[in-house]
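hey so i finally got around to running both of the ones u sent me last week. sorry it took forever, my laptop kept dying halfway thru and i had to restart like 3 times lol. anyway pasting them below in the order u listed, first the sequence line then the structure token line for each. didnt double check formatting much so if smth looks off just lmk and ill redo it

first one:
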Amino acid sequence: MKFKYLVSMRHFMVTLNFIIVSFIGAQFLLITQYILNQQLSSELLTTLARVPASPMILFSECIISYGLLVLVMYILYHHHFSTQNTLLLLILEFVLAFAIFFAVRMNYNGIFLLVFIDLLLTYRNLPTIQNYCFWGISGIIFLLLFSFSNYSLLGVFFKMPSLTTYLNFLPTQSRSLLVFFNNFLVSLNLITFICICLGYVIYILNRTHTVQSKLHSMQKANDELKSYAAISEKIAQDHERKRIARDIHDTVGHTLTGVAAGIDAAMVLIDIDPKAAKTQLQKISAAIKQGIKEVRQVLNQLRPDALKSYTLASALNKMLKEYSDISHIQINFNYAWGDADFQKTTENIIFRVIEETVTNSLRHGHATEIWIDCTSNDSSYILSIHNNGKSETKIKPGYGITQMKERLAIINGTVEFDGKKGFTTIVKFPKVGV
């Protein structure tokens, strides 16, 4: 069921209650006039517990109080207020409903059903009351109001005039006709209330089903996107592998071809012109070094295999153990970063920095022992690598240092070098969110 149908039924119920309230007020007014014309006033007074108010005042109270109630409903339905102001207007609806109940001298309590329906349809999206507990308590309160707010329980206590007492002064045919219309209107209001409640339940079920269907569709689309992403990633990886393989092939092939040609030329020159042969060998050496650099540039784009299967700490331990086993260098490794969750890019950079520094310690520093400490402070992670190898007071930023700085810049990291008493490399990069 569409919500607009429920709104239309609500409008019908508002109109129906206006008819009922006006009809009851009109009955008091017209029957009182009939009693006065028939000179039955004394008999009426003897049947009532107290002198009734003017029927014209009673009728006016009914019209005015109901008009105010409809005005409040209209304002709340077509305007948006803060939660506090909305709840204050809701309390005002309750007050006006009780005013109408007393205006009709407790001869009609269906007005509380109208207020509940208005609450149900108007406040359905309020975040402070959108829960089952609220609606359960509200339903119980309105049920109790409807059950106990009738003339037989309260009318005698408050000494209100009963409409039935007035109807008894009419001829049998007129009285029966009015009783029929009264009962018909009250029953129609109750049936409308039940239909709106059932319609609202159907509306909620349909909306829940629609939401579930959309969630299912979104989940299906999400699964398809994941599959597509996985395929795209696989294709991208394949393309990247082919590109890197092509780059290595071109780099190594070009270098080896040049080296082979250079060696052949050196072999020819070595007996004829040793000096020229030496020059040729120097060119070959330069070409080899350049080829090594180019191969490194290509390989540095790859994620270390160790990080694909291990955590950063485990991968570093594995890599350092392999270095230690091959070179017989003593490596003291202290990993105090705990369970820090780094991004893959950060892990790759840290792994490469340590790998490059250890390699330089062996190749250039000729170190026999290395100390690696992974510590941190409140705002940064700190990586300190010190070796007991060759000291270097004048540090020239070559390719390796430049590449290290470029890598660390990606994660907003910095690097400092100290060439006294061996060689020390200190790396700092910020903690995420600090």
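and the second one:
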Amino acid sequence: MAGPDDYRRRAGGYSTPAGVVLTGGGFAARPAPTNVTDGRFFGDDTWSGLLNALPVEANTAETAARVAAVFFCVSIIAEAIGSLGLEFKDNHGPRNDFPLANVLAYEPNHLQTGAEFWAAMAFTAVLRGEAFAEPTVGYDGLEVWALNPLRTVSEWGERSLVVHYASERGQRRLMPQELFWFTGIADGGLRPLVPWKQAKGSIDFQLALEVGARAFFRNDRRPAGVVTTDQKLNDESHGRLKEGVERWKRGGIPVFEQGVKYQAISGSNKDSEVVDLIKQRTLEMGRYWRIPRTMIGDEGGNAGNNEQDTRSFVNWALRPLTRRIEQAITVRLLPPDLRAQGIRAKFNLDSMLRGDAATQWKNAVLARTASIMSVNEVRSGWFGLARIEEEWADDPRSALNSNRAADTATGGETAPQDKV
């Protein structure tokens, strides 16, 4: 007569690959339950390798950026920065009459446009807390090249900074005077905080949710569980049970006999409220990067709320970063003679704060009638229209009912009743 050890050996011969637990005659075939649906249906080795390859913890910035909410928050800020116009001004107005202005605004190097360069620098800074670039002299003059963050190690001292860069030509040690850089917020020292590390707890939670959801749907939405029975099974019954489990692994539906029952030991995604948890974690990520709720969530709002959220996004997510970049450009890239002339770098945020078309036209009329802006400032600065080459068009104090204005704008004669 077979003893418990023989019974366990027989059960182990087929239960181990399938992860089945049998209880028969008052003893268990294995000391602890193992999931039947353990994510290895269609090729055990393949699925096990893929499951182990899935990141469950954010140990690098690249892993953190793979989370959809993180990438959205970082990329929307970076793309917004890249879309802004970079201008240079002094106390008398725009100053784009020096070569460096064109380089920084339109062509930092021969492989990147201004929009591409500033979006890449902003993405690095928003994700990692710092971004470095190296000004060099190329064949066409000054060039500015962003340093690859994967090859860059910044060494912040109490009052010092050294950057170690592993370029393709070897290790380099760069001093602050050789670089252009800007950083994010710090907690009292020079070393900036690393945003993705600050949000690491929420990011890890989000990764765990994604891995769990992938496993659930990979198992054809079947919960993990065990099969149990109070009866003793013979070899023939063992074989049929093994075939049923193998059929389950291939996506089929097994038929159990002799009182064998399947008992789920893990809840479904619905029971775990995975969808609600993902929404909550997504909103939590938006708080780290100050993204308004309506921009990162799936619930819509009315036009007034959306416009207000856009203003909040500009005021609290974009403006602090653009201010840091503007001062970094002015202090670390402009030569002393240009700074002595009062020239400063400026990103134009006005286009994102004007609201819808009706609001823009209303504000333009108010600015002109109050003599705050001239006709040319409204035309070229707000609407991108061609300038009117007349002196009165540059004077914000020009009378609104000026005959000269009427003649120039319409190309016709002044009305008889307006002639003096």
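quick thing i noticed on the 2nd:
Residues 161 and 176 are 6 Å apart (CA to CA).
anyway thats it, ttyl
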